[in-house]
Amino acid sequence: MTALFALATSLLWGLADFGGGLLTRRTPALTVVVVSQGIAVAVLGTVVAVTGAWSEAGPQLWFAAAAGLVGPVAMLAFYKALALGPMGVVSPLGSLGVVVPLGVGLVLGERPGLLQFAGIGVAVVGVVLAGGPQFRGAPVQRQAVLLTLLAAFGFGAVMALIGEASTTVTGLFLALFVQRVTNVVAGGAALFVSVMRGAPALPEDGGLRAVRSALPALAFVGLADVAANGTYSMAAQHGPVTVAAVLASLYPVVTALAARGFLSERLRGVQAAGAGLALLGTVLLATG
Fold this sequence. Notes:
The protein is mainly alpha-helical. The chain has helices at 2-23, 29-51, 61-84, 87-94, 99-107, 114-131, 142-163, 169-196, 207-213, 215-238, 241-248, 251-263, 269-287. The chain has one domain (2-287). Helices cover 78% and strands 0% of the residues. The longest helix is centred in the middle third of the chain and has 28 residues, at 169-196. Residues 134-138 have low confidence and may be disordered.
């Protein structure tokens, strides 16, 4: 069951990243975050009401609320990075968020093994190779790499926090609901401030009509991201976290394949090598 849930996580996260990246090329990233997560809130609220998950309320929901505060920052940074750079580079760098759960393990007394130390070195080399071509005029902007690393840290923090927020299936529904409500509140506040400063909230081409026409895609992105969080939590609860992390960290492969298939993206050799090393470093970190 662990392998099944974790592989489902990879598929869902990979497709959500691809969809989110496409949407932010036409619609402001904050709007994508708020609308997609708002749809997720409506669906999760219905699920919570039907299953009676409110009975699982407890102090552990503070972890879900914290994940909800970190999540919009990570998603905004990641979507902006996807809009700036090739998905085949950005997505593998985003998978480095697995470092955060490993760091939590260190605080709790665990010590990294040889493979984990090797993973750190490989991942750093991958980051340098993926971002370094910027100095020679390659299309990957340094800002895209920095935004992706910020997003990776946020994603890893969300994984660690949501893992502490529930121990049962119905409790997971409630935790995800609280997380997404916090996402919408935090993202909505950021969108309001952004608009007050003169930034657009709607696409320049089409305005509100364009957002309405994109609602199915926005719903898919929001619900796929929620489902991925849920399947990862289930994977971690049903078996070794290391196995779940390894398989779940394969989601950049899905994003890269989708970008290659639908967008015909082509990467320079050094960029592809850097992205591949970053992904390899992620696997080594998780398996060490």
